[in-house]
Amino acid sequence: MSIQVEDLHYTYSSGTVALQGVSLSIADGERVAIVGQNGAGKTTLVRHLNGIFRATGGRVLVDGQDLAGREIAELARTVGYVFQNPNEQLFARTVRAEVEFGPRNLGYDRARRDELVDWALTATRLTEHATSHPYHLSLAERKRVAIASVLAMDTPVVVFDEPTTGQDHAGVRDVSEVIAQLHARGRTVIAITHDMDFVAENFDRVVAMAQGRVLADGTVHEVFADAEVVAGAAVEAPAMMRLAQGLGWTESVTTVERFVAVLAR
Amino acid sequence: MITVDKLGYTYPETARPVLREIDLNVPSGQFLGVVGPSGAGKTTLAQALAGYIPHVLGGEVTGRVEIGGLHVVDTPLPDLVTRVGMVSQNPFNQISGAKFTVAEELAFGLENLGVPRQDMLIAVREVLRRLRIEHLAERSPYELSGGQQQLVALGAMLVMNPDVLVLDEPTSQLDPAGSRLVFEALGELRSRDITVVLIEHKIERLAEFADRVVVLVDGELRMDGPPGTVLAAPELVEWGIGHTRFTTAAVRAGGRWPSGAALPVTLDQALAGFGGAR
Amino acid sequence: MATLDFYQAGRSRVHGWNPVTKLSLSLTLVVTAFALPVLWWPVALLVLVLLPAVLASGVQRRFLATMSRFLLPVILLLFVIQGLFYPGGGQVLLTLGPLSVHADGLLFAARTALRLVVLTGSFLFLLLTTHPGDLMTALVARGLPPKISYVVSATLQIIPAFRQRAQGILQAQRARGLRTDTGLVSRVRALVPLISPLILGALSEVDERSIAMEARAFGSTARRTSYTVIPDSTAQRLARWLMLLAALTAIALTTTGVVS
């Protein structure tokens, strides 16, 4: 499902300007990473995609339809949103009930619910914890419960806000696997993250933000090759890109896979 | 300086120990990285070093933890706080609530210790500068983003100038430039002879900044040594800790990584090894 | 932050006064207004002291708006009830069917209303012109136990922080399709997913919070120092002694029956 953001502005009631003219067009099935400085407006931007924030200027269209005036609960059918802090959403007595909450709200029938919940639990490696109380799990596991609870809603667009924070290597690999599965199902995936190697390995496109504006928008290589963008967005190029640059290579290299392939030539 | 001798710990109302037979000596001024998969007991170890176990969290401690010659279990917490400071994962919970601005929040610990005002002013200004948060000095700590709150939580400990600083993923919500800044600031603490114990998933940063790395798996110390050796060990993959991209690249490069050369864990090492490969 | 909303930052001289001076002023106004049973006395306090102080600090708009919002309904009710039902009676001013309005009742209502205006106005003036942090710092410097100051400061800040979190939870659950807008049943049903994360979250954070306070040496027995210095002056110290004297005089005059 496509997304259009047109000259989006957002100013908090306190007067703090968070977004000052963001335009973005995301095609159906794209995997887009949003990176940038703390306070650049990344979260504010993606919270417009499911109506949590309402533009104070400009507009947002999902599947060609203006979001103005539409309910968050209604938009939940289209855009799934995994919040950064799982503690702000987990409430059920078991992991399974937690994951089932979304699909139930959306009125999916029993068979579809079961199928989706099973898939979401498997994808997040939580099947063995299905009957545990979410608060008996570690923070990293709770974070995966939050991801599963949104996956099970089976939305065409899934937004993640810093999905790898606090995850160990295996946890990050799980999130990568989830994104790959969503991609295989033709979903649009948007993620905010501070992990640039995770970006290089899982996303087609990078949007770098600073001070409420889009600083750069392009492939991983395009965005990180620009030293001014890297400095302006307070990021670092992915490890393999720094290595290839240091070696004086001219090829586009952002991942280990690509590095090894180029090396073998 | 930290001396840990056969440390074991079991949480209240549980049977299985979270830490088992930990032996660890960390000299003054050393920057020690602690890695391990989720649930290995890393946070518990940090809390034991800081004295929160058993003083605040209860539970059963066996063995000994000494900080600068003080026996942690027998020392009341107020006497420990000038020796050891801890920055935990959730920055929101570390804001005292007693103060209305970031500058006052940073000074709070010093006020409680009765440090003269002139010294406080200097210490607070220094930390604001070092963490580049001068622009936040007059803001409310509650209005900050998670990343900014992490910097304030770190600053609140730095300002107290403890002999040992224990940090549990202190940069998880920071952008890469902010995280690098924090690692640099921690690296500079060597010159003040402050011991740093850092729990971190970002092993590429540890490879660059730490003097030494220990691996905690299932409550036990499995490995201990210089970052170059420990972080390149093949077992790390099987333990769910993983390798840096530089290490993985060299492993996958097979014959194109110079035979006999140690596997790289930093950019510089990778550049040196791959430099003649093509 | 909603709880801090009372405080209106400004650069007036009144803002610069030591919070204890402003607190003394408020207390003196209230004590004398209640102690002296003279009808015109609260009026004099309002006109000669409180209103000039409010005007000098530039907070008059918020002052008048808040006062009328809080007090008008109370005062109106006071006059109606006391006018009609004041025991004793006195001269009947007006008869409305079975009800009659008595002069004594109206007098009592006026006296109470004026005192209420002084009470509310004095403290509103204090809150509007004094940052709660400065007030706490100034009081701790004068011997208020830091624990009490902490409870006040933390409450003022953590409540808005929790309100913000409650808002975050509401958004997170709506983003999972929770409807809170369709009738009573759905609203009641929506309470569990909204309230339990708030409570579970707060409970799971108790340990970490107490650790955070310990880590900052809050349990220390050292003699505390203060980072923030609250300005004071000889004139203000003198003023505070005079105000104390005035309050004591008012109490003495009333209890000895000199003024009645």
What does this structure look like?
Chain A: It is found in: Cell membrane. Chain A: This is Cobalt ABC transporter ATP-binding protein. Chain A is of the alpha/beta class and 265 residues long. Chain A is 37% helix and 22% strand. In chain A, strand 7 (157-161), helix 6 (169-184) and strand 8 (188-192) form a beta-alpha-beta unit. The N and C termini of chain A lie far apart (39 Å). The longest helix of chain B has 14 residues, at 117-130. Chain B has 2 domains: 2-242, 3-Layer(aba) Sandwich (Rossmann fold); 243-277, no CATH class. In chain B, the strands form 2 sheets. A 6-stranded mixed β-sheet of chain B has the order 6-7-8-3-9-10, sandwiched between helices. In chain B, strands 2-1-4-5 form a 4-stranded antiparallel β-sheet, covered by helices on one side. Chain C has a two-stranded antiparallel ribbon. In chain C, strand 1 and strand 2 form a beta hairpin. In chain C, helix 2 (19-35) packs antiparallel against helix 5, helix 3 runs parallel beside helix 5 (103-129) and helix 6 packs antiparallel against helix 7. In chain C, 28% of the residues are buried. Chains in contact: A-B, A-C, B-C. Chain A binds chain C through residues 47, 50, 52, 71-73, 76-77, 79-81, 83, 85, 87-92, 101-102, 105-106, 135, 149-150, 153, and chain C through 165, 168-169, 171-181, 192-194, 196-197, 200-201, 204.
Brief write-up:
The complex is a heterotrimer of chains A (about 260), B (about 280) and C (about 260). Chain A has about 260 residues and is of the alpha/beta class. Helices cover about 35% and strands about 20% of the residues of chain A.
Distance between the termini of chain B: 46 Å
Unreliable stretches of chain B: none
**The CATH topology of the domain at 3-78 and 155-236 in chain A, please?**
Rossmann fold
Mean pLDDT of chain A: 94
Tell me the helix content of chain B.
Answer: 25-40%
What is the beta-strand fraction of chain A? 15-25%
Largest sheet of chain B: 6 strands, mixed
How much of the sequence lies in strands of chain B comes to 15-25%
Reported by name, the CATH topology of the largest domain in chain B is Rossmann fold
Number of helices of chain A: 11
State the end-to-end distance of chain A. 39 Å
Low-confidence stretches of chain A: none
Encode the helix/strand succession of chain A as letters.
EEEHEEHEHHHEHEHEEHHHH
Family (chain B): Belongs to the ABC transporter superfamily.
Keywords (chain B): ATP-binding, Nucleotide-binding, Transport
Domain ABC transporter (chain B): 2-243
Pfam family, one (chain B): ABC_tran
